[in-house]
Inverse folding.
């Protein structure tokens, strides 16, 4: 945190405009009804790369099952991964538990209140540390997420890509100046640092949106440089996105009686520690070759079950789901695999695409017919 940041008259004018606006227009979000740093921390990690409306039910369920740091630290990995199922970026939930255990070991189970100690926790970067410290403890710690970048880029007319070092450093200085301006204005209330940071995020989410911003309703409309110059659409400036890439993968459904073959993803890999139906990418191989390599045996029959289309970052993936019969009666499942019943499958944490496969299997078993190659999308 840059302790030398100084607030300007303009910063103070922005704070003076934003705090009353936030008090009147803030959404009633469940994590805003508490100053518990644990609850705020969980919400901030969930909100990374995820929309608010998606996070709300996840956060409520998480807080019911794991209401405090001690319960998270002691939870079994399968419990936390099941609670996180569908939120994606699963490394986040692993870091949550590692941080909880560090808090138990180093801080006696009490969430630290200093910025430096919060920043030292696994999975917590500069933005998250600033958000927790300002919202939970009303510290004058800055934040800079996508919404805040957009607001500051327009209000101060900041040229250049925010991912570039010099541009990013300037945006952080601007954010620090604003939260220090809020901290200095005691007459604006006891939670002014919290309110200021949340107001910046809320303004970006509700008013200063990427497309068609509601400038006439903006409390900063008379201060915003981009609006004065008629160049709102030009900010923030970004480099072109990488081109999307298409991939074709296969998942194999192997059944033995009333059980299905699944395998667990290795720790550290994408979707690490989640369970999935065995399979892989089809680049440079055929379905038959992939089946032999993945399953350790030659299938006597491969029948198409359904297709799942899904997106991961810039990849557009077509997942071809094949039902497998293994002809060799001596065949045994690979060592990283497990046979599970339909009921047990429901209890495992699966990536979203594989959860759709499991749902299709449940429908087929209930109706007594195959899925017929239909396409599921998400």
């Amino acid at each position: 945190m840059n302790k030398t940041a100084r607030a300007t008259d303009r910063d103070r004018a922005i704070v003076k405009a934003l705090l009353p606006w936030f008090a009147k227009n803030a959404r009633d979000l469940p994590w805003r009804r508490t100053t518990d740093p644990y609850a705020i921390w969980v919400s901030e990690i969930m909100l990374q790369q995820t929309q608010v409306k998606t996070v709300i039910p996840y956060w409520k369920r998480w807080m019911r099952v794991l209401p405090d740091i001690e319960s998270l630290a002691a939870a079994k990995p399968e419990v936390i991964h099941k609670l996180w199922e569908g939120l994606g970026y699963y490394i986040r939930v692993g870091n949550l538990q590692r941080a909880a255990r560090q808090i138990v070991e180093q801080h006696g189970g009490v969430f630290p209140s200093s910025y430096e100690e919060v920043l030292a926790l696994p999975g917590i970067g500069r933005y998250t540390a600033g958000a927790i410290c300002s919202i939970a403890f009303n510290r004058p710690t800055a934040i800079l997420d996508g919404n805040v970048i957009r607001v500051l880029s327009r209000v101060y007319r900041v040229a250049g890509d925010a991912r570039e070092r010099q541009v990013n450093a300037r945006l952080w200085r601007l954010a620090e100046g604003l939260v220090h301006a809020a901290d200095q204005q005691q007459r604006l209330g006891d939670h002014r640092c919290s309110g200021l940071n949340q107001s910046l995020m809320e303004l970006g989410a509700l008013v200063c949106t990427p497309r068609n911003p509601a400038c006439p309703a903006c409390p900063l409309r008379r201060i915003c440089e981009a609006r004065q110059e008629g160049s709102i659409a030009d900010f923030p400036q970004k480099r072109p996105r990488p081109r999307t890439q298409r991939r074709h993968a296969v998942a194999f459904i192997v059944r033995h009686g009333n059980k299905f073959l699944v395998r667990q993803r290795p720790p550290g890999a994408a979707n690490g520690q989640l369970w999935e139906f065995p399979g892989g990418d089809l680049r440079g191989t055929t379905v038959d070759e992939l089946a032999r390599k993945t399953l350790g045996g030659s299938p006597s029959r491969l029948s198409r079950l359904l297709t799942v289309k899904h997106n991961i970052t810039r990849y557009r993936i077509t997942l071809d789901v094949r039902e497998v019969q293994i002809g060799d009666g001596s065949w045994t499942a690979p060592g990283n695999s497990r046979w599970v019943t339909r009921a047990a499958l429901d209890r495992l944490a699966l990536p979203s695409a594989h959860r759709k496969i499991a749902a299709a299997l449940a429908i087929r078993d209930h109706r007594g017919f195959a899925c017929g190659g239909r396409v599921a999308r998400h």
Q: What stands out?
A: The radius of gyration is 25 Å.
